[in-house]
Amino acid sequence: MTTDSIPVVRISPDHHTNKCARLMETAAAWHGGQSSALYALCSTEVVHSEEHRANLISEIEAELDGLNKNQGDYTTAFNRDEYAALLHLRTFVQQFKVQTTLAQWSKQTGILPTHPTTERQAVSVVIEPSELNPLYNKLWDLSDYVVSSVSGIVVWLTPRK
Question: What is the C-alpha separation between 159 and 143, in angstroms, rounded?
């Protein structure tokens, strides 16, 4: 393993599902109404953009500040648990990969995909391959397409099922 590679931790699906459910319960318990960032998170279980992430962190920090200002109440078991749950939620939000669609990626890069060319609705984009290029790397993290093959500067994508 090189010094610049990041280790991947595999979590069992049951652990992930239970942990995610607890985080979404926290978001649901603390959201400030339908227009709040936490409401959007607990409704979709997705951090939609960097702006959404910033709004989530701001909303969580405001709730943590509220608990801190109420020091007398913070000593109760309920508030200690809620404080810890909010801290876990903040960490989750900070680490969550923002979901990007192919359309959003194209808007960011100015690179348009071809029209679907096969029965599998595959599209291709032409981009200089480089592991150091974050725009190239984002193709592997698209929420609506998966990289099916790469040939030189052509990256083929098929819709996620």
Answer: 9
Question: Do 122 and 158 touch, CB atoms closer than 8 A?
Answer: yes
Tokens for 82, please give them.
């809620």
Across 146-159, average pLDDT? 93
pLDDT band at 10, cuts 50/70/90?
very low
Q: Report d(CA 18, CA 36) in Å as an integer.
A: 24
Q: Please list, residue by residue across 56-77, b when 16 or more beta carbons sit within 10 angstroms of its beta carbon and e when fewer do.
A: beebbeebbeeeeeeeeeeeee
3-state secondary structure 16-63: HHHHHHHHHHHHHHHCCCCCCHHHHHHHHCCCCCHHHHHHHHHHHHHH
Residue 98: exposed, middle, or buried by beta-carbon count in 10 A (0-12, 13-18, 19+)?
middle
* Gap between the Cα atoms of 98 and 54, Å rounded: 12
Q: How far is CA 32 from CA 9, 42, 60, 68, in A?
A: 33, 12, 10, 18
State the pTM of this model.
Answer: 0.58
